[in-house]
Amino acid sequence: MMKKKTKNRLISFFSRAKREKLVVLASLSVAFLGLLVIVIVLASSLFITERLKLVNEIEKNFNNAVFELQRGSFNPYSLLNEKRVKGIALYDSRGSIIVSYGQVYNMLPIASISAEANKNDDNNIIRLNLKSKTMEYTRLIRLPLMIQDVNYEGDISRYFPSSLIDYTTIMYISFDATPYLTSVNILLFGTFIALSGIVLLYVFVIRTYLENRSYKSQMVKQENLVNLGQAARTLTHEIKNPLSAITIQIALLKRQLRDSDSLEEVELISKEVQRLIQLTNRVSDFLKNPEGQPEEIDAAELIRSLVPLFSYEIKIISSSEQSATILFDKDRLRSVLENLLKNAVESCEGRDPQVEVEITLDRKNVYHIFIRDRGDGIKKGDTEKLFDPFYTTKIHGSGIGLSISRQFLRARGGDIKLYPRPGGGSVAEVTISKFSLVQELVLNGPIINKKGKKK
Fold it and tell me: Which residue among 49, 315, 352, 391 has the highest number of C-beta atoms inside a 10 angstrom radius?
């Protein structure tokens, strides 16, 4: 009952932590998304403002030109010389030039202008010509306009005699858009920089938050290890002596109840006592020097020697490395491999887990020992929890084995990974560097020989 309550509390704690993480990430995402929207809206407003400034200036010059034409006092060259106007022209309904000054079309593209006018339901058409860097303005007018004879020596504009125009006419004016395009490019660059800065800031904040959570989790684990160390001293002193006394009494009971029906119950008590003794020994090992006495060991040979100890068949892949020489404490390596093989064999109940072992060597001279099974697999979210001290999914498990195994391997630069196996089951992957005398001398100085003595 107590164990169930503790488990429920742990589940509640982790669910709260996960919920807190999701809330924080969602809040940060919404805040930065809002900031992006603000920047985009502000940039759009600035773009519209710049365009309106240019359109307003064009409208002003256009209206001045129309007014002067109506009065019969139109002098296009003053407009071309003093303003940013690059060309003015009048076209008939077919797009042919009636009169033109400056840089204009020889033939106005009536089809595209009419289509755009119908689309926008407006007789005023404004188009940006990026090729010539001009803003083109066209308007359909029907006014009696007097075009005066103008003699402008050296001008490329066409010369027409005085005439009276009294039919539908298209007036065209092209305006220098270089300053507008420069402002637009500056705004685009500034917007890109602002958006990039916001995205980078978002990534930085999220990464910092996740790293802080990771550091906090590591600090909690370190605190648990410290508490475990303090508890281990008490456990070793307070539990081992009573357990020794109980073991002696059980041995006496076995002699007295040799032919009794109660011998099975005594055997059960003996097994549980031995399990407690092993638990205290493992806790002590967890706090001792995890590196132990390193020596040159063939991990492949050690695995082959462990295979016959299990009730189910353990298959060694034929393509595996036949020899895997590493520098490791023999007892600790045996403990690591035996624990992983035992977990694989006990991964399901009532059927063959189909355990197989494969050893490979990568280009970095690192051995990968894969222990695969077809058991019940690893539950989602349990991958890292399985390495926490005292966390276990077994009824009679203590949760110490994997935690100690990882400590032993990391002390020698290795590691353990647990992940689901495609098709069902799980995979335990052990990584450990291949033994190299030169590398060992460079990294760790004088190495340990096969007998455990320093050279």
Answer: 391
Token couple for 298 = 């063939």
pLDDT tens-place string over residues 121-155: 566 777 777 787 888 888 877 655 444 444 444 44
Backbone angles phi, psi at 433, to 5 degrees: -70, 145
339's enclosing H/E stretch is helix 330-345
The residues that bridge with 429 in the sheet, in sequence order, are 370, 417
Pair 317, 326: CB distance under 8 Å: no
Q: List, in order, residues 6 or more apart from 232 with CB less than 8 Å away.
A: 280, 283, 284, 286, 287
Could you give the CA distance from residue 29 to residue 153 in angstroms, rounded to a whole number?
Answer: 66
pTM: 0.46
Task: List, edge to edge, every strand of the sheet that includes 134-141.
Answer: 97-102, 85-91, 169-176, 134-141, 124-129
Non-local (6+) Cβ contacts of 38 within 8 A are: none
Cα separation, 169 vs 290, in Å, equals 95
